[in-house]
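quick one
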Amino acid sequence: MVTDGNNTIRHVNPAFTHMTGYQLADVVGKNPRIFNSGRHDRAFYHEMWQAIKKTDHWQGEIWDRHRDGTIHARWLTVSVIRHPDGDIYCYVAQFSDITEKKQRDELILTQASYDQLTGLPNRNLFKDRLAQEIKKSHRSGLLLSLFLLDLDHFKEINDTLGHDAGDELLKEVASRIKSCVREIDTVARLGGDEFIVILPEINSKLRIEMVAQQIIQALSRPFQFNQNQVAHHISTSIGIAIYPEDGTDMESLMKYADQAMYAAKHQGRGRFCYFTPAMQQNANEKMILIRDLRCALVRNELHVYYQPILDLTHQRIVKAEALLRWKHPQLGMINPAIFIPLAEESGLILEIGEWVFDQVIAHIQQWRQQYGDTIQISVNKSPVQFKQHTKLVWFEKLMQLGLPGNCINVEITEGLLLKDTPDVKNCLLEFRNSGIEVSIDDFGTGFSSLSYLKAFDIDYLKIDRSFTSNLTTNSTDNALVEAIILLAHKLDIKTIAEGVETQKQQDLLIEFGCDYAQGYLYSAPMPAEEFERLCNQQREGHCIGKFDLTAKKNPDLSGSEIAPHS
Ligand code: C2E
Ligand code: CA
Ligand code: CA
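structure w/ calcium ion:
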């Protein structure tokens, strides 16, 4: 487009007509003002003319109106052409349509700031907002609260109902959380099933609790997916950190909200928890323990204990479970329930797990050589250990010592089967091919999927202690335990009852047809030498401790795992 010294349109070319919809006849003699979209203010045009006057040139983005009324983004270059004496001869405007590019840029910006699934701000935008809100709170002196939310048992829904259902659930969760907060609050999704809420400008802590409670309630209402008429339940755990009481910068607030969230989960899920200094101390202690655990192996502080497993029909020790112990130089004996999760979190479980296995097979071989019989030892294998390719190694280690596969029984958790990844599948297949037996530990406490039991060729179910301890006359747990045993037997799976502490429990288990039992009634876990002594006494037919090892002694040992090897 060419305009004269008065900025009146003189010429346009066919490309102009194509882009703007105007013919030359429509615009000649007019001021380019007719293309104004209304999107720019006076200052914009003023600056543009200032530049043209000063440098004879301007270049930039401009929104113009098409003849059909639509608004387009253009990349515009204006150049001044002068007479030799310096007077303006004409202005030449060249432009191209960049509307599509602008739309693409905007989309990229949205993708960079918003979660595609839920439409909520993502981690990037959340961080920007939090930084701004912290500054505002600093100025206003009002409190700011950060909620970190994690859905309880989301993974199970995702695994069993599929990812589409999981996606739908997350969208619904996002909208339910938003319905509990104000316009000025930010709800963001950090990824997975983790959401975060910024509540700025808080006058009273009561409000914090109210909102937390509302969110928990909103998410406890059943969820329904499409055609599926079944209602699904989830719950959420919320960790709360407050600015400036708990922390004054973004990192510490996030860290503290996270610690509080774990505390909420730990306290039984479906609740909220404030950050407290005690939690910080806990976290510090945890770090120190992990540091110490790194050295525990080389310093010989770890020990494998054995807890006998009894064959209930013959009342004989036929197996044992290897249970790890940590004798800490300052803190004394540390319970595996405390340090195994730390070992899993830090990855140390890989090294420790291999060490346990090596100890166990060395003991089995030593006893086999000394006494001529083989006792099957159960080894706990954490889900973390299945991510690493150790599958062949265990079998190879057994072969090197000349031990049969079935001298090892690997205890895994129900959750592992649900994962159903190639790693898990291959590993379980290797176990089966090499004769290593597999037990499901703590059966009944997780998200049991019965169809997997058969698919994965499980050999034993270990009935969780929580069921065993409730075995009394006429409890519903009696029915549950009996049903588990029946079900297992129908699937050709043997049962081991855990945590048997009383004679009454044992009697009921025998009545229900349970195959094996383990618990304090017989013996607590004990060091290898003691366990060896106990087995020896059994071999000699002695009666030891609380139970009579000679009772119903079976002269034919071939049916039990302590059997002479040829
Ligand atoms: P688990 O596999 O369920 O082990 C059974 C736990 O119940 C053991 O606790 C045992 O001492 C305890 N127990 C046995 N009989 C009774 C009873 O009659 N009454 C009561 N109240 N408790 C009984 P422990 O040794 O503290 O082990 C805790 C958990 O640590 C184990 O639970 C297991 O999940 C994990 N763990 C232990 N050793 C290892 C290991 O070498 N590797 C891995 N990955 N995990 C291990
Ligand atoms: Ca176990
Ligand atoms: Ca168990």
